[in-house]
Design a protein that fits this description.
Order of helices and strands: EEEHHEEEEHHEHEHEEHEHEHEHE
Structural class: alpha/beta
Number of helices: 10
Distance between the termini: 19 Å
Length: 333
C-alpha cells in the first residue's frame, strides 16, 4: 500500500504562488480516528487569510486585537506553523482506528476541520466524534466540500436571534460563505430575507432563495424605510447607530465579526429594546449535526463556481480573491 501522499503546502506567507505541491508521509489513524481519502477541499476566507497572515494588520483583522494575537500565535508570526491549509473536505473513508464504530472503509464523508486546517492533502485523519458525517448522496464532492463552514457559522447566530416564520431578515454580506448559508437557513425557517451584496453577485443571492436583493453600491438600505427583526452583519462593517432605525421595536443587529467599538455598543444597548449582539460561532458537533440534517433535507445547497485541480491551487486562491467568483471555489485533490 502506498505510504506517501501529496499535499498543497506553503512555508512562507505571501501571495497565492507560495502554494506548492509536496510529498508527505501518509498519516495513520489512531484508535478513535478515521483516515479520509480527500477528493475536494474548499477555498474559504480562512484559507486566504492564513496564507497571507504576515501581511494582515491587526486593524485589517475582522476581530478584536486579542483574537488577532491569538491567531498569530497559533499560525505563526514570521512563518507558518501549519503548512497545509484547508478546513472543509469531502472524500471517502480509507481505513478506521480500532475503536471506530460509526464509519467503515468506503463510506463517503464530508466535514470541517476548523482552524486545525490540513484538508489540502490527499489524506487526513479525523476524530470519529469530530465534525465529520456521511456525505448526502445528492451532493457531489465539490458541493460537499464547500457547504459545512458557512452554515455552521450562521446557524447559532440565527438560532440565537430566535427567528420565527414571518420575521424580516436583512443579511449584510449575503454572497459570502456565511451570508449565503444564512440566507438559506433563514428562508428555511420561514423568514422574509433581504440580501445585501455587490452588483455582480445579485443573481447568485437570488438563486440562493433571497426574497429581495439590494445592491449596496446603488442603494443604502437604511434609507428605504423598511424595518427588520434581524440584521446580520457578516463582516461587521455596518454602522449600528446609523441603522437602528431599520430595526423593529425588539430587533437585533448581530455581528459575526466585530471590533472593540461593537463590543462597547453591545454593552450600551443591553437594556435597550433594540440590541446589538456580538456573537461567535462555537463550531460545535451539535450544531454540525443540525446542519447535516438541513443539508440532507435539501434546505441548504452549495453553488460551486469553479473547481481547480491540485496542481492549480495558486490559481484557485487567485480566483477566490479576485472578487469575480459567483459561488464557492474548490480544489480537487
Amino acid at each position: 500500500m502506498e505510504q506517501t501522499m501529496q499535499a498543497i503546502t506553503y512555508t512562507k506567507y505571501g501571495p497565492p504562488d507560495v502554494l506548492h505541491l509536496t510529498s508527505h508521509d501518509k498519516p495513520a489513524p489512531k484508535d478513535s480516528e478515521v483516515l479520509v481519502r480527500v477528493r475536494a477541499a474548499s477555498v474559504n476566507y480562512g484559507d486566504l487569510l492564513a496564507r497571507n497572515f504576515k501581511n494582515v494588520s491587526a486593524q485589517e483583522f475582522n476581530m478584536p486585537g486579542i483574537f488577532y494575537l491569538l491567531a498569530r500565535l497559533a499560525f505563526g508570526f514570521n512563518q507558518p506553523k501549519k503548512s497545509i491549509l484547508g478546513s472543509e473536505f469531502s472524500g471517502e473513508v480509507e481505513s478506521t482506528g480500532s475503536g471506530v464504530t460509526a464509519f467503515k472503509p468506503g463510506d463517503p464523508v464530508f466535514g470541517y476541520l476548523s482552524d486545525n486546517m490540513g484538508a489540502y492533502a490527499e489524506y487526513i485523519c479525523v476524530q470519529e466524534n469530530g465534525l465529520i458525517a456521511k456525505r448526502p448522496a445528492h451532493l457531489t464532492h465539490e458541493e460537499a466540500a464547500s457547504i459545512a463552514y458557512g452554515a455552521l457559522m450562521a446557524l447559532p447566530m440565527i438560532n440565537g436571534a430566535k427567528l420565527q416564520a414571518g420575521h424580516k431578515v436583512l443579511i449584510l454580506g449575503a454572497s459570502g460563505g456565511i451570508g449565503s448559508a444564512a440566507v438559506q437557513i433563514a428562508r428555511h425557517l420561514g423568514a422574509h430575507v433581504t440580501g445585501v451584496c455587490g452588483t455582480e453577485r445579485m443573481d447568485y443571492v437570488k438563486n440562493l432563495g433571497a426574497d429581495e436583493v439590494i445592491d449596496y453600491t446603488r442603494e443604502d438600505f437604511s434609507r428605504n424605510g423598511q424595518t427588520y427583526d434581524l440584521i446580520l452583519d457578516v463582516l461587521g462593517r455596518g454602522d449600528f447607530e446609523k441603522t437602528k432605525k431599520s430595526l423593529t421595536g425588539n430587533g437585533r443587529y448581530v455581528c459575526a465579526s466585530f471590533k472593540g467599538k461593537q463590543i462597547l455598543q453591545m454593552l450600551m444597548s443591553a437594556r435597550s429594546s433594540k440590541k446589538l449582539v456580538c456573537q461567535m460561532a462555537p463550531g460545535s458537533r451539535e450544531d454540525f449535526l443540525e446542519v447535516v440534517e438541513m443539508i440532507q433535507a435539501g434546505k441548504i445547497k452549495s453553488i460551486v463556481d469553479r473547481a481547480f485541480p491540485k496542481e492549480q491551487a495558486a490559481n484557485a486562491h487567485t480566483y477566490a480573491e479576485s472578487g469575480r467568483k459567483q459561488g464557492n471555489v474548490v480544489i480537487m485533490l
